[in-house]
Amino acid sequence: MTSSSTARPASTEGQVGRSGRPPRRKKGEGQWALGYNEPLNKNEQSKKDDNPLNVRARIINTYSKRGFASIDPADLRGRFRWMGLYTQRAPGFDGGKTAMLEEEELDDSYFMLRVRSDGELLDAAKLRALGSISTDFARGTADITDRQNIQYHWIEVEDVPEIWDRLDAVGMTSLEACGDSPRPFLGSPVAGVAADEIIDATPALEEIKRRYIGDPAYSNLPRKFKTSASGHPSLDCVPSVNDVSFVGTVHPEHGPGFDLWVGGGLSTNPMLAQKLGVWIPLDEVPDVWEAVVSVFRDYGYRRLRSRARLKFLVADWGKEKFREVLETKYLQRALVDGPSPEAGAAGGDHIGVHEQKDGRFYVGVAPTAGRVNGAILTGVGDVVERYAAAGARLTAQQKLVVLGVAGDDVEALVADLRALGLEAEPSNWRRNTMACTGIEFCKLAIVDTKQRSIDLVAELEQRIPDLDVPITVNVNGCPNACARTQVADIGLKGQLVLDDDGNQVEGFQVHLGGGLGLSDQFGKKLRAHKVTSAGLGDYVTTVVGNYLEDRAVDEAFAD
Ligand code: SF4
User: Fold this and answer.
1) Residue 281 Cα, ligand 1 centroid: separation in angstroms?
2) Is the CB of 198 under 6 A from ligand 1?
3) In angstroms, what is the span from residue 371 Cα to ligand 1's centroid?
4) Is the pLDDT at 125 greater than 60, yes or no?
5) How many CA atoms does the CB half-sphere of 422 hold within 13 Å?
6) Mutate to test the pocket of ligand 1, among 114, 476, 495, 511 (most ligand atoms within 8 A of CB)
7) Ligand 1 near 438 CB (within 6 A)
8) Strand 141-144 to strand 433-435: parallel, antiparallel, or no bridges (unpaired)?
C-alpha cells in the first residue's frame, strides 16, 4: 500500500448531492505528494521562482556592495529569512498602528540576524566571535532566544559578509535560522556531562546539521520545521512543542535510544506533540529525521500559511497513519516499538551548580528575559578561558550553562559570572520569566515584552521576595507565542486592552496554569483575565499572592 492512495481526498466526480447539484469539489491543501505542485500563495510562488538559498550569493556579491535600496523586494521580505535575516520594525509605530499597516510598511532598513547554536558547545573563540559581532555591528544588542539562538538587531546589509566570515571562522552559521526550513535545533545544554543523562543526542544533531542544513532538497518546506533532541530525563528541550522531537528513553531489551514525537506547536491552534511510541538507536536518528521532514515537505499543507505547520497534518492523519506513511513510504522498514517517556523530572533549566559525571561541574546562570549584550558574551568567553572550562551552551529557557568547571574554580567562576550580570542563584522570578522580542524590534508585535519583563522581575523581587516555588511567566508580544504563551504558569499574550478610562492601551490576555515537563498542559485562557501592561505587576502579585495564601501542601501553582 502506498501512502498516497490512502491520503488522497475522495473523488467527487460524477456524484450528485442532496440538492441535486454536484457537490462542491473539495479544495486541495497544496500537498505536493497529491499533485498540487502549482503555488497557491505568494510565499509558495516566491520559493518556486528561486530557491531561497541562492540569496546568499546575491547578499555577498550585490546587496552588501550596493546597499539596502538595491535589494529585490522578493528577497528582502522572503528569501533573506533563509539566511537568518529579517527586517526589524521601524521605530515609531505603536501596537495600535501595527494592526492597521501591512508588514512591509513597518520595515526598517536594519535587520535582525539570528545565529543558530543547535545545542553545540560554544568555546571561548565562539563566544568572543559572537560578542564581537554584537559590539561591532549590532549596537551591542544580543538576546539568547528560547531556541538556543543568539539574536542581534541593528544589522546593516553592508556588514553581513564580514559577519558571516567571523561566524565561518569559528564554525557557526545563520543559515536557515529563519524561513520555511529546518530551523535551529534544540539540544540538551548538559549533553554528554549530566550524571542522570539517558543518552547523548549530540552526535545525531551534528550529523543532521552536516547532512541537511543548506541542502536544497529540504529548503522549501511548507513552513518552519522545529527540531529537538535530548536524552536528559528533565525533557529540557521542550519536546512537546516541536515539530519533531527525539526524546531519550530506555528500551527493556535494546537499552538507551529515542522515542519519536511529532506535530507539536503553539501559536494559534496549539497542539502537544504526538508520541509515536518507538525506539530509535542513536545512529538511526538522522535517517528518521530526514524521513519526517520529507513527509512534511511532501504532504504538508501549502495552501494556507495558517495551516502549513506539521501539527495540522498530524492532527488530520492521527499518529498511527503518520507512522505508517513514515515507515512504508520513506523508511521502507518498520520502527521498533518502545516505551514513551513520561513527564520529566524537574530542573530542566539547569540553573545553579551541578556535579558532572566526570567529577567536574556545570554552572547554569540566568540573565533576565534572555537579554545579554556583546560585552557579556565576550566576558563569558574570557571566563571560559580563565578557568579552562569546556565552554558554554544556551538553553531553551533563555539561559546559559558553563560546562566542565574544576571543583576548586566553581566559587570564583560563579562570582565572575555574577559580575557580568549572570546569576547562578537567581530569584524564582528571574529564573522563570521569559520574553519574546516584542515591539522593540518585531514587526508583528503589539506590545513591549523585553523591557516590560525586566521591569516586572525587578518589581516582583521587591513585592514577593521570598517566592519559594518556580512559577513560570512567559511574556509574548502577539498571538504567535514565540515565548510559549500556552505552556507557562502565567502565559501572557500581547494585545490591546481597555484601561479604566476606556482607552486602548498595551496589555495582555492571560493564560493560567500551563506547563511543560512535569505537567504537559495548556494554560486556561480566562476571558476576564486581561491586564494592561502597566497593571501587570499588580496582577501577578495578586494571583500569586492568592495562591501562596491558599495552597495546600505540595500544591503547585498550575494545580
Ligand atoms: Fe514577535 Fe509575536 Fe513572536 Fe513576540 S510572539 S517575537 S511579538 S511574532
Assistant:
1) 36
2) no
3) 15
4) yes
5) 30
6) 476
7) yes
8) unpaired
- State the distance from the centre of ligand 1 to the C-alpha of 96, rounded, in angstroms: 15
Q: Cell for 8? A: 488522497
Q: Work out the number of other CB atoms within 10 angstroms of the CB of residue 107.
A: 19
At 136, is the secondary structure helix, strand, or coil? helix
Query: What pLDDT, on a 0 to 100 scale, did the predictor assign at position 22?
Result: 56
Cα-Cα-Cα-Cα dihedral of 319, 210, 285, 356, to 10°? Answer: -120
Q: For residue 554, what are the CA distances in angstroms to 229, 349, 392, 522, 550?
A: 31, 21, 34, 21, 12
Residue 182 per-residue DSSP state:
B
Predicted confidence (pLDDT) at residue 99 exceeds the cutoff of 80: no
376 lines ligand 1 (CB under 6 A): no
CB 85 within 8 A of CB 160: yes
Pocket lining: 482 vs ligand 1, CB cutoff 6 Å: yes
What average pLDDT does range 3-30 have in this prediction? 48
Please say whether the beta carbons of 113 and 441 come within 8 A: no
Q: How far is CA 101 from CA 110, 119, 437, 443, in A?
A: 19, 37, 19, 10
Helix (DSSP H) and strand (DSSP E) numbers for the chain: 17, 21
Ligand 1 contacts CB of residue 444 (under 6 A): yes
Distance CA 485, CA 69 (A): 37
The reported pLDDT for the residue numbered 105 is 67
Atom of ligand 1 nearest to the CA of 442: 1
Three cell numbers at 342?
513520561
pLDDT tens, residue by residue, 166-214: 999 999 999 999 999 999 999 999 999 999 999 999 999 999 999 999 9
Burial string for 124-134 (b: 16+ CB within 10 Å, else e) reads bbbbbbbbbbb
Phi, psi of 126 (to 5 degrees): -65, -45
Percent with pLDDT over 70 in the chain = 91
Question: From the CB of 477, is ligand 1 less than 6 Å away?
Answer: yes
Tell me what the mean pLDDT of segment 59-87 comes to: 97
pLDDT, tens digit (0-9, with 9 covering 90-100), for 370-405: 999 999 999 999 999 999 999 999 999 999 999 999
| Side chain identity, residue 61 | N
Q: Which atom of ligand 1 is nearest to the CA of 477?
A: 7
Nearest CA to ligand 1 atom 3: 482
pLDDT tens, residue by residue, 312-365: 999 999 999 999 999 999 999 999 999 998 776 666 899 999 999 999 999 999
Q: From the CB of 437, is ligand 1 less than 6 Å away?
A: yes
3-class secondary structure, 158 = helix
* Cα of 439 from ligand 1 centre, angstroms: 8
Which triple of cell numbers denotes residue 361?
561541574
Ligand 1 centroid–CA 436 distance in Å is 6
| Span of 13-17, 54-58, 142-146, 466-470 with lowest mean pLDDT | 13-17
